[in-house]
Amino acid sequence: MPAPISDSQTISNIAPYLEAHVPGFRGPVTDVQKTAQGQSNPTYIVTAASGKYVIRRKPDGELLKSAHAVDREYRVLSALRDTDVPVPDALHLCEDESVLGTMFYVMSFVQGQNWVDPRLKGENRDMRVAVYDSMNATLAALHSVDPAEVGLGDYGPPGNYFERQVGRWSKQYRACETETIAPMEELIAWLDAQTPPEGPARLAHGDWRIDNLLFDASGQCNAVLDWELSTLGHPLADLGTQIMQWQLPPGTEGRGLMGVDRAELGIPEDDAYAELYAKRVGLSEAPDLDYPVAFAFFRMAAIIQGVKKRALDGNASNPESGLKMGAYVPMFAQAALMRIK
Length: 341
Hints:
This protein is α+β, with helices and mostly antiparallel strands. Helix content is 41%, strand content 12%. The longest helix has 24 residues, at 290-313. It is globular, with a radius of gyration of 20 Å. InterPro entries: ACAD10-like (IPR052898), ACAD10_11_N (IPR041726), Aminoglycoside_PTrfase (IPR002575), Kinase-like_dom_sf (IPR011009).
């Protein structure tokens, strides 16, 4: 087995493999750029004679069971291709680890604007209005897809989504725990005790936020990315994830809207955004989001605890960033407790 990817030369060397397995691909590879995003699954923009492509792979090192499932991402992209949910074309999944040292897949490159900061700094008010409306409409479109009709009826296990997700992420958190964090202990206990009834089974993206979306020049969403956490589950988990993100401080680290004058910028308040979503998916009223938001804080805390552990073990894609992110674990847990008390 070759060494794991360390630089662009490794990808450049597999041009013959890509020519044999990716429709229309033609080498040579002339450029490989590792994206700034993709902390969990390293992602590369590959330029070849036939155009641009994206390669997304599992990270190096020992991985938690069921984590970094790029094969599941590939399956979702394939299933959603002919729906109203905009996704890149899934071109090839390579499960042969001898090619790059780990499983990877190739998807089409989608040209689009991506924002890490949800304030959309540098854009005018009309653009912000368009982006947030399209983001809302795209989420509603995703939750309007019948999983069984697109071949995803078995994409998640049976049972209460929140119950099994809290159990899963609690185990992941315990496996990466580096110290006892009291707010996390309290939050896990509350989530276990307050599990809401199961909702209609829908495809849940799992990490719905603006930096996982691409937009065209008019502010319309033209690609939903990063499906690593997707599964069948409760649709309010995605809405809760987005509302959770907005409670964080603004800037490239918090990536939130805390303290921002949203009316001036043209960004909807939480309630208005939830009401618009409810209307689009056919709900009679805006849903109660306390549990979904608290769960979203908890899951993100568990994820970044894993990033911190990989950084400490020397396996993170960006060790410095991983350690910095790890400091947010107790803050996320405390924010969830403030929401539910």
